[in-house]
Amino acid sequence: MSADKPHLTHDHVRELLKGMIRIRKFEDKCAEAYTQEKIRGFLHLYDGEEAIATGVIPALEPSDRIVATYREHGHALARGVPMPQVMAEMYGKATGASGGRGGSMHIFDAGLNFYGGNAIVGGGLPLAAGLALADRMRGLPHVTVCFFGEGAVAEGEFHEAMNLAKLWKLPVLFVCENNGYAMGSALARTESQTEIRAKAASYGIEAHQVDGMDVVAVEVAARKALAAVRETGQPHFLECLTYRFRAHSMFDAQLYRDKDEVAAWRLRGPIVKFQGWLLENGLLHEAEVDAIEAEIDAEIAEAVEFAEQSPWEPLETLTRHVMAEERPAPPPPVEPSAEKVTMTYREAMKQAIREAMHRDERVFLMGEDVGAYGGCYAVSKGLMAEFGEDRIRDTPLSESGFTGAGIGAAAAGMRPIIEVMTVNFSLLALDQIMNTAATIRHMSGGQFGVPCVIRMATGAGKQLAAQHSHSLEGWYAHIPGLRVLAPATLEDARGMLWTALQDPDPVLIFENALLYNYEGEIAANAGAVDIDKAAVRRAGQDLTLITYGGSLYKTLEAAEELAREGISAEVIDLRTLRPLDDATIMASVGRTRRAVIVDEGWRSGSISAEISARITETVFWTLDAPVGRVCSAEVPIPYPKHLEDAAIPQVPRIVAAAKAALGR
Fold first, then answer.
1. pTM for the full predicted model
2. Which domain CATH number covers 405?
3. Which neighbouring-strand residues pair with 536?
4. Is 369 left (phi over 0), alpha (psi -120 to 50) or beta?
């Protein structure tokens, strides 16, 4: 069989027909199990679209990667994920392909390079771009294939991924399964341009349209596209015109189309069409079709039996696969050398990036203007000349797209440092951070991790007004699956990054914008630091002041002022907001018996509220006063300096809160 066209031998046409019937019958059994309440949640069936997975996936190499959609049972089966494991996953059993933690929409198989379904429409597109980016940067000859429905083309992530794929010459085959309806909305009602391939072509991507109900036509088009991707390293786009015979999901009442339309399309179905052609031309006989169906029926019966007899995961392992079970040991403490060097916080971060890139060729920096400008705060200025454009990678203004690409590159083995300028822009990438980076380990049953670092500036105080003065690190600290750091000192700015890059899970680093120009002395041998522990920055006995990031120096100043009045305040720098170092916090508060938390986040729902709750739950009976909090006012941060200063924690407010805790 040539690389770009199939030979329709007897064995080959039999496999094509069997592949489609196998998917159809498997899903029919799943629909039956759903009505029996053995399968729950959202169940999106591939009924009518079988020719696409069957035509594309067998043409791939084992080392090629696949990113699917929430309708991915057909893709998984076509890739070779064993049917018993797929069925067990549908049931939510521990023996499932994802350990029962993903369910219908999240089937993974690391051994087969099957990167799973994605329940977020369009969410898999940046991930696929990142997987291909990793292969391109390492010079590997693999192709990533990304399946998605036509509804995804309305999402910004579609356009961001198309642009990145063409801009960076990524070896991706995008396969749009255009079934005419995005959930219940007909294509003409949701898209001003209904020629999906034209959207991809507008980015300069070679794009073709094929009859997605014709398995041979799909295979021919797929082989040609794959051969072109391998030869040129450029992305290609394949729009497969198809039709799903069932509703969007089993919850869907399907009020948006009539039964006659579905019946008419069923007459053109891929199995009916291909099987009829084979029988008519004597390429297969009825007895062979009967044998195929009997073989599949037996396989399905065994898969159902396997799923029904498989155990549920015990409650004792509920929290498995949130974070990696094995992490590198924290770096051993190093005695600071007598030799000191003077540098700014900005320079400390820059040196950390430089050292990481020298140590590990998998490390690269990506983000907006990180090259010539050095990023929003000039942290990486000059590094492009040192490391080149491939490793200091300027991105378009497409936070979701390039963040998702970094996540994909990490899942493929790279170690990206993703800079998202400022925390407010990170909200444009929140889908990728929360729904992919933080969840893929759990959804895949521990098969995939995302060892990336995402950096961003945070905080107010520079008169940047409401849209550029957020302190949202507490929001991210709410999300399981992430590690959240807030380095405040030169040593932490210099050393946290390398430790974070060794972590097998995604690490977010929040750099307070007011600290970049902070200058001080640091030991010449300063290196990696432990990112799991809070630090006592000042010892005291009368009360504990708990803070992090940009508020650390204000809190230390407040402690100095309190000391002049005879009050001994201990200052804890949290350093890590998720997971919190409860042991250090409780040991201090249990001893001083009073606590005040200083947090630049808004008071309601803040990280300070979480810490206060934990103190109350853990050491309540040792407290001599209620836990105090100094937070930002409940107002978008104003532009005028006097109002901005009043809105965020300042030394006088910290001193006042401390005295109140002491009853003074």
1. 0.95
2. 3.40.50.970
3. 572
4. left
Distance CA 652, CA 263 (A): 74
What Cα–Cα distance (Å) separates residue 38 from each residue in 57, 231, 248, 249, 307?
29, 46, 19, 16, 10
Q: Is 288 assigned a catalytic role?
A: no
Write out the two tokens for 540. Answer: 């005291």
Question: What pLDDT does residue 4 have?
Answer: 65
Order across the sheet with 628-632: list the strands. Answer: 535-538, 569-573, 543-547, 595-602, 628-632
Confidence of residue 333 (pLDDT cuts 50, 70, 90): confident
Q: How many domains does the chain have?
A: 3
Residue 555 is part of which domain span? 537-661
Domain end (from 234, 255, 280): 280
Catalytic residue among 72, 468, 610, 644: 468
Model confidence over 227-241: pLDDT tens digits? 999 999 999 999 999
Of the residues 280, 297, 327, the one at which a domain ends:
280
Element (H or E) spanning 211, and its range? Answer: strand 206-211
What average pLDDT score do residues 153-169 get? 95
What is the DSSP-derived secondary structure letter of residue 242?
-
**Going by DSSP bridges, is the β-strand pair 172-178/144-149 parallel, antiparallel, or unpaired?**
parallel
Residues 418 and 543 occupy one common structural domain:
no
Residue 581 lies in a domain: yes
Q: Is residue 5 part of a domain?
A: no
Verify whether residue 470 is a known catalytic residue. Answer: no
* Catalytic residue from among 27, 239, 368, 399: 399
Is 322 within a domain?
Answer: no
